[in-house]
Amino acid sequence: MSKAKRLNEMIMMVNRKKRFKVKELAQEFGVSKRTILRDLQELSEMGVPLYSESGPYGGYQVLNERILPPIAFNEGEAISIFFAIHALRHYISLPFDSEYESIIKKFYLNLSGDIRETIDKMKNRVDFVSVYQQEETPYIKQLLEVSIKQEIVIVGYEVNGKITYRSIQPIGIYANEGKWYCPSYCFLRKDYRVFRCDRIKTIELDVNTVPINLSTIYLTNRFSLINRNKETYQLHVELTNKGVDKYKSTKWPNIELIIRNDGTGFLKGTILKSDTAFFSNFFINYGEDAMVKSPSELVDSIKEKLNTILKQYL
After folding, report:
1. Which GO molecular function, any one, fits this protein according to its record (predicted)?
2. Percent of the chain having pLDDT more than 70?
3. Which site from 248, 261, 289, 299 is most exposed, i.e. has the minimal number of CB atoms within 10 Å?
4. Is residue 243 part of a domain?
């Protein structure tokens, strides 16, 4: 049996066993104890979380039994996975136990030499460009965990240099333009809010507040469910060809893009009354490539903001 095959089978074997001894592995694979010890050292360097205990009843075991069995990827799959992981380098904080450098090193070093050579040639030829994360977000892992468990946390949230404390029940977390966000139910405001994770300075479990049922609310459907009874406006925005291209990369829920044969288009749908200020800034960034037709409240808000900007240059 080749060394590579022995290591692969050893990973599957130790993953099945709660604990094992060097002697057992030596007998199983027909090699010396010294060879098994070297193999275990290699598995440890590959990331298998092995733990050893001395004494007559000692041996080895896999910590937490969370090591995955080996999976065979073809060259195309391996390269695709590498660059999917490679895209994470823009984020200095991830909601996982391992950070980017640890993940990419472990995966890359266990690829065959020819696949690594192919990746090395491609690295400077293909990229997924995104905004670099600037702020540390130390609590995103905890926020993800409590959203899964439907628990409530008390967070210290900083706005304009001041920290306020509130109980929130997170729905999940997502990254957008270099920042992490956490949509949650805020018990202070008695409504749903989106919190910037880098502004959360402290976090602790709230055992005194009773959770609400968010079991059917996810990141993908939260807008349609939590905004159901809120006041909305009907939106109509005309877009030039450039405006259509720009909107394609920043789609919003409940807003439909309709493209005409000449490449121009328009947006129709609903927006929350409370989001009027946000969409004012959003469409001002489109310049001449967007013309808001309705609601009138959004048109008036845009005019007011543009007048304020104009006064700065008078």
Report:
1. DNA binding
2. 93
3. 261
4. yes
